[in-house]
Design brief:
The complex is a heterodimer of chains A (483) and B (715).
Chain A lengths: L3 H31 L6 H8 L12 E7 L13 H5 L7 H4 L23 E4 L4 E4 L3 H5 L4 E8 L5 H10 L9 H9 L9 E7 L24 E3 L17 H22 L2 H23 L7 H7 L9 H13 L4 E7 L7 H25 L6 E6 L3 E2 L16 E2 L3 E6 L7 E3 L1 E2 L6 E3 L2 E2 H11 L9 E3 L2 E3 L15
Chain B lengths: L1 H24 L7 H4 L5 H4 L1 H19 L1 H5 L1 H26 L7 H24 L5 H27 L22 H13 L18 H6 L16 H7 L18 H13 L15 H9 L18 H5 L4 E5 L7 E5 L7 H5 L8 E5 L21 E3 L21 E3 L10 H6 L5 E3 L7 H10 L4 E3 L8 E2 L4 E2 L5 E2 L4 E2 L1 E2 L6 E5 L2 H6 L3 E2 L4 E2 L4 E8 L3 E2 L4 E7 L6 E4 L32 E3 L4 E11 L3 E9 L9 E7 L6 E7 L11 E9 L5 E9 L17 E9 L1
Parallel strand pairs in B: 2-3, 3-4, 4-5, 5-6, 6-7, 8-17, 10-18
Antiparallel strand pairs in B: 1-2, 9-12, 11-15, 13-14, 13-16, 16-18, 19-21, 20-27, 21-26, 22-25, 22-27, 23-24, 23-26
Helix pairs in contact in B: 1-6, 1-7, 4-6, 4-8, 6-7, 7-8, 9-12, 12-13
Classes of the chains: A alpha/beta (483), B alpha/beta (715).
Chain lengths: 483, 715
């Protein structure tokens, strides 16, 4: 009996050919006359010259210490003594101006203001106010630029987090790290250009999902590679028992042959990506154990990061690992530290959270500076939105909580061409609205790309008939914070 | 119909005169405010003549071949006349729009205006002469009109959509970020003049006879005299006019136009005083030049690390040098300068460092961090005369080879972190001519020496932080494998990640109370469940917290477990299998799949054996994590049965509630119940979670969580 699949394909071909001949060829001819490169997307992409910066970059790599769950800006970097004076008083409507609330506080009868439980001090030459929860970050005040005027559009964790990471709230767009991998390529072909490290504190946590480090519509080679906290830092990387490197090579060569055959037949570019990924994994088998080996770190380094920096899965160990990966040419290292969602019991939970990250975050900046790498490495610290200036739940002196607040929040950046010892932007006396120099998430993305030598309007990828950017159709570079 | 056409023709005649008048004198006309904004209708109207014209053209051609269409000759004529009317009205509106302050980029506006005017006039002329010439002349004219229309349309689209809107993705040519030594005028002054002055002082408008768009006539000045003289900003007309009060008639730019801000005026002033010519380039300005200082301070240096020029690399060289153990990249897309980084220890050899000789003139940055570089290898670096930045962090050098670097004329930055340096660095600090930054943290060089160098070589910034003397707490030791269930012959291994730490432990509550403990050297052997209490110490650190590991013996696991109540869906990963699989969970990770979490219901489960088993003890392993609302159970009961229906209570225990002082307690705990003599096939275990969280806890009044990972049965 004849092969029905084969038959089917034949008939489809004929019908397709006849059906499309008249319209198809005519419009192709017309189209190629009018727009030279209409059908060769490669040419288009090449003309943007993916893989190298558009202009001389200030930063070459990014380490993003994402504080997942949204740490309160009012207990960290946005000092509002007025809230302490006005303890328990109602949030004026003239300030709230109809801001929508989450389902968690929208039913609340009143919105009593509450100030920081923790005192603040001024640090560094810039005199930046930083709360006592973060003394080590205080000690690097002259190296960091605190942006107190970040604002976002989403009011719940997942969309806000997704927005912060991908420039869109809905997911399925490429993550920041993927855009950089696409735009700048890899420095070290033995390691992925985009790595992800996870840790969690004891505070109320929110999930992180692999969609946050997705390549979206970009080639899957740009996807973030998650490092695990187990002994095997990249899962399934080591050879199975009984297989040595030679066997592996042989297996890969045969597999590549098959994949190439398949590619010639089908032409799906994802097959090429797959081949590249197998090769990358092979090279990673040597490189990953070398780069994740923390045993050679000196006592002084261990002391800098804190004694838990050798315990896999802690924020400190991820910071140290991030420094090592960055030193080895990984473009974008994304850390997530969970546990910052202090809806209630903030005064008890936040000190633990801060203790987990304060020393190691500062140590990372100091360590990079000591090694002469801070100039070319951009460190970013912050969450997905801020927290309300009023109390969620019942308010007492020691027990209070804060709901989500998208209108103003604080992050800081260090190195990579960002001015140190600077506080940018300002909020009103109650810390609710921005009064000076607002920085939207799109602006933040544009600025980060700019620091890396990429024009956010030119770093595009054509998908579904239109060009996409990390900043979509908005965003402008915050020039004032760039050296 | 004829009357209408005649009327329109007269209107067209008037319009044609008006359009021509406006076209010539538009820059001299100031429109009263409300009239000005009607220019905005231009963008709306312009689509009408385009559509009309295309239809007219089709009718004209069609009329030549098809009789039915030819008979509609009058309609065609009317349509064409109407096209001319609309085209001229559109042109008038367009000229009004172009006259608005803050209008668009000048060059493209002029082009668009010329084409638009041309099209409108041609339309009018066609209506006048159309009946007096042969068909082919008509067609030629009309096709010419179509070309003009396309040109006008395209230039118009450039104004609204930006240049290159037809071929996006191509970088615009005005990008000058990569001029290595840009003209100060182009980079910093031109953008200001373009947006604030050129709108009136260009070749077409030339108000007051001043043309600023080309440098010669800019210098020459206008009716009132010379614009400025180099070095004399304060007496220059340009600056003086800019500084006049806004309501002064001579103030520039005039009231209502975009104004210069104070920093722009300052920059222009400084430029006149300190640039000296239009052809001055940024890097030719001396560092003490006030203009350069102002630029650096307010705008920032031009983005170019490469001030020098480097010879081009032969094509194919970089590809040949590429290897998986190192990366070789140009600094940017059109730079010849190259940076090289080594990444794999087993890839680095002195030999493949030699390969880089072919790019010795282009290499500006070299990173050998973490590579097994020896002092001898540094000799190979002496050929890189353009090398600016050398990273030798954490290599195998002791500093004796650094002497080879003194011949590197361009070296400005040298990183030596994490190397035990034995040699005096005086020589290299004094001999490397352009050294500006040295990184010396964790090199063993003492602080006294460093502060001496800092005074001796003030131009070199030495990065080295004082030794951190703050004492920190060590983390507690951990249990290897982290599964605190032991079988026959297993031993207990403790671990601490930091080198040089001593672990102290005790397995006996009494000893512990007295402070007696042992130093951990070899794994602890035991035949029974055991409680190990341990802490870590190291010189220079505070002792770690004391941790307790409740290690359980495996016992006789029942073959089947059946839960009678349901755990909370969030903490029910392994279902009942979690209770008899011999795996315990991590007490710091509530999401560990080995946990079963109960809140709404108490825990009730039946454990079955295939045959009767004489069980003497039951052990319950649970979590206490007070900050996470996880409390010890309030009571647990064990029942036995042989028919799975009639259960008999054979053991129970009430567990004392914890108090306020344990608010932050997180501990993995075990409760053992001794059973009355029993010999059953089925055992039922009931564990009550705390019905009401006490008042001192933020969760007061709620039910407490109960987290169980394993139930042990011992014969």
């Amino acid at each position: 009996m004849s092969n029905p699949f084969f038959e089917n394909r034949l008939s489809v071909n004929r019908r397709y050919f006849l059906g499309k001949l008249s319209l198809g060829i005519g419009s192709i001819a017309l189209g190629s006359l009018m727009v030279k490169d209409m059908f060769t997307q490669e040419d288009l992409i090449e003309s943007i010259q993916v893989g190298l910066p558009h202009f001389a970059p200030k930063a070459k790599r990014v380490i993003y210490l994402f504080q997942n769950g949204a740490p309160s800006q009012l207990e960290s970097f946005d000092y509002k003594p007025m809230l302490n004076y006005m303890f328990g008083q109602e949030l004026p409507e003239s300030i709230r101006q109809g801001q929508r609330l989450t389902g968690m506080t929208s039913g609340q009868a009143n919105f009593p203001l509450v100030g920081s439980y923790f005192p603040f001090k001024q640090y560094g030459k810039s005199g930046a106010w930083i709360s006592d929860l973060f003394p080590n970050i205080g000690s690097i005040a002259d190296d960091i630029c605190i942006i107190k005027s970040m604002h976002t559009e989403a009011i719940n964790h997942d969309p806000a987090l997704t927005f912060m990471q991908t420039g869109a709230q809905q997911g399925n767009r490429p993550s920041m790290g993927s855009w950089l991998s696409y735009g700048l390529g890899s420095e070290n072909e033995n390691l992925p250009a985009f790595c992800v490290l996870l840790s969690r504190g004891k505070g109320n946590g929110q999930g992180v999902y692999s969609k946050l480090w997705t390549n979206g519509f970009l080639d899957s080679i740009h996807q973030g590679v998650q490092f695990s906290n187990s002994e095997e830092r990249v899962l399934y990387l080591s050879d199975q028992d009984g297989m040595d490197r030679k066997d592996r090579r042989l297996m890969l060569d045969k597999l590549n042959e098959l994949n190439h055959l398949n590619f010639e037949e089908v032409g799906d570019p994802e097959i090429k990506t797959k081949i590249e990924q197998y090769e990358m994994a092979y090279r990673m088998q040597t490189a990953v154990p070398e780069v994740t080996d923390l045993t050679k770190e000196s006592d002084a380094t261990i002391k800098m990061y804190g004694s838990d920096c050798l315990t896999p899965g802690t924020f400190a160990s991820n910071c140290l690992l991030a420094r090592k990966l960055s030193e080895s040419g990984v473009r974008f290292i994304q850390l997530y530290h969970q546990g910052w969602d202090q809806h209630n019991n903030l005064a008890q939970e936040m000190p633990n959270q801060a203790m987990d990250v304060d020393r190691a975050s500062a140590a990372l900046v100091k360590d990079l500076k000591q090694r002469g790498l801070l100039d070319e490495t951009l460190v970013i610290w912050g969450g997905e939105f801020g927290r309300t200036n009023y109390c969620q739940g019942t308010l007492s002196k020691d027990v209070y909580g804060r709901d989500h607040h998208p209108r103003a929040y604080s992050i800081w950046m260090a190195g990579g061409g960002v001015k140190g010892g600077m506080v940018y932007g300002e909020t009103d006396e109650l810390g609710y609205n921005i009064t000076q120099n607002p920085v939207h998430v799109n602006d933040f993305h544009a600025t980060v790309l700019n620091l890396l030598g990429l024009d956010h309007e030119k770093l595009t990828y054509k998908h579904l008939g239109r060009r996409y950017r990390l900043t979509d159709v908005a965003g402008s570079v915050v020039k004032n914070i760039i050296i | 119909m004829k009357k209408v056409v005649a009327l329109l023709s007269n209107i067209n005649f008037a319009l044609a005169i008006l359009v021509t008048f406006l076209f010539i004198f538009s820059s001299y006309i100031v429109l009263p405010f409300p009239l000005g904004s009607i220019g905005r209708f231009h963008v709306l109207l312009l689509h009408l003549p385009i559509g009309f014209y295309v239809i007219s053209l089709c009718l004209k051609i069609g009329g030549h071949y098809v009789d039915e269409i030819k008979q509609a000759h009058a309609t065609t004529k009317l349509l064409l006349t109407l096209t001319a009317t609309m085209a001229m009205v559109t042109a008038i509106f367009g000229m009004i729009l172009a006259n608005e302050p803050d209008a668009y980029e000048l060059d493209s506006i002029t082009k668009h205006g010329n084409f638009g005017y041309g099209f409108a006039m041609l339309c009018y002329l066609i209506t006048v002469f159309i009946d007096r010439v042969s068909f082919y002349f008509q067609l030629a004219f009309m096709l010419g009109g179509a070309l003009l229309m396309i040109a006008a349309g395209h230039t118009g689209a450039v104004i609204t959509h930006g240049e290159g809107f037809l071929f996006p993705g191509q970088a615009s040519s005005s990008d000058q970020v990569f001029d290595k030594n840009p003209l100060v005028y182009n980079m910093y002054i031109l953008p200001i003049l373009e947006s604030k002055c050129f709108q009136c002082h260009n070749t077409r408008k030339a108000k007051n006879d001043l043309i600023m768009t080309d440098t010669a006539s800019f210098l020459k000045g206008g009716k009132n005299g010379v614009s400025f003289a180099w070095g004399l900003a304060d007496s220059s007309m340009m600056i003086q006019y800019a500084l006049l009060p806004l309501d002064d008639e001579l103030h520039m730019p005039p009231e209502g136009k975009k104004q210069l801000n104070s920093s722009e005026v300052e920059l222009l002033r400084s430029w006149i005083d300190h640039a000296g010519s239009f052809s001055m380039r940024y890097f030719d300005l001396s560092d003490s030049n006030k203009l350069k200082m102002m630029i650096d301070e307010t705008i920032g240096k031009p983005r170019s690390t490469a001030q020098k020029t480097y010879p081009q690399v032969k094509p194919g060289t970089l590809e040949k040098l590429a290897a998986n153990y190192r990366s070789i990249l140009p600094l940017c897309q059109s730079c010849n300068a190259i940076e090289v980084s080594y990444f794999l220890r087993n890839g680095y050899t002195a030999n493949n460092l030699k390969d880089l000789e072919v790019v010795k003139d282009q290499l500006v940055k070299l990173s050998l961090a973490n590579m097994p570089v020896t002092d001898d290898d540094l000799k190979l670096l002496s050929i890189f005369n353009n090398l600016e930045d050398l990273n030798l962090n954490m290599t195998n050098i002791n500093g004796s080879g650094l002497v080879h670097l003194i011949n590197l004329p361009s070296l400005t930055s040298l990183s030596l972190v994490n190397n035990e340096l034995e040699n005096d660095l005086d020589l290299i600090l004094s001999k490397i001519p352009n050294l500006r930054r040295v990184f010396l943290d964790k090199t063993g060089v003492n602080e006294e020496q460093i502060s001496k160098w800092r005074t001796k070589y003030p131009e070199i910034k030495i990065f080295s932080s004082p030794i951190d003397t703050t004492k920190l707490r060590l983390v507690a030791p951990t249990l290897v494998d982290n599964n605190s269930v032991i079988g026959e012959g297993d031993s207990i291994k403790l671990f601490h990640p930091i080198k040089g730490v001593i672990i102290h432990y005790s397995t006996n509550d009494e000893q512990l109370a007295k402070g007696v403990n042992q130093i951990y050297k070899t794994p602890i052997t035991t035949n029974d469940g055991i409680k190990v209490t341990a802490f870590a110490i190291k010189e220079g650190w505070y002792n770690s917290d004391t941790v307790t590991f409740n290690i359980m013996k495996g016992g006789t696991p029942p073959s089947i477990v059946k839960l009678l109540t349901t755990p909370n869906a969030k903490y029910n990963t392994k279902k009942e299998a979690a209770l008899n699989d011999g795996l315990r969970a991590s007490v710091t990770n509530n999401a560990d799949p080995n946990w079963l979490g109960f809140k709404e219901e108490v825990m009730k489960a039946i454990f079955s054996y295939n045959i009767k088993k004489a069980i003497s003890k039951v052990g319950l392993s649970y979590s206490t994590a007070i900050p996470s609302y996880i409390f010890p159970p309030s009571e647990l009961r064990v029942y036995g049965s042989n028919d799975k229906n009639n259960f008999k209570l054979i053991g129970s225990k009430k567990i004392p509630m914890i108090n306020k002082s344990q608010l932050s307690l997180i501990r993995h705990e075990v409760e053992i119940i001794d059973l009355v003599k029993s010999d059953y096939q089925f055992y039922k275990v009931e564990v009550d979670n705390l019905p009401k969280i006490p008042n001192w806890h933020p969760g007061k009044g709620e039910r407490g969580w109960l987290f169980i990972d394993e139930v042990f049965f011992y014969e």
